[in-house]
Amino acid sequence: MRTRLLGLLRQRAGGKRRTSAGDAMAPDVAAPDVAASDFAARVRAELAEELPDEDLSEDLADILANYERGSRPGTDEDEDEEFLETVREALERIERGY
Fold first, then answer.
1. Whole-prediction pTM
2. Residues 43-52: pLDDT tens digits?
3. 66-79 pLDDT, tens per residue?
4. Which residues, 6 or more positions from 13, have their beta carbon under 8 angstroms from its beta carbon?
5. Is 44 exposed, middle or buried (0-12, 13-18, 19+ CB in 10 A)?
């Protein structure tokens, strides 16, 4: 998962458009959307680094909605709550945009 997220970040960074005048970068028409998805990808990559043993899907809200406490082997109630809080904070950062 972590490798896939890092690959997506690299792909987005390399996908900028060029103007017909040469090498100068043209501002993207959907720059706010691109910036928001780049930020979201960066937050997900940070989360994947922080939780390397977890299988994090693209939709963090889905993780929060479908997570079953005690489903991860070798974890207790406090660890479950810490995991959920970490995912919740990442989702809130994405929604805030910073």
1. 0.64
2. 999 999 999 8
3. 999 888 888 899 99
4. 38
5. buried
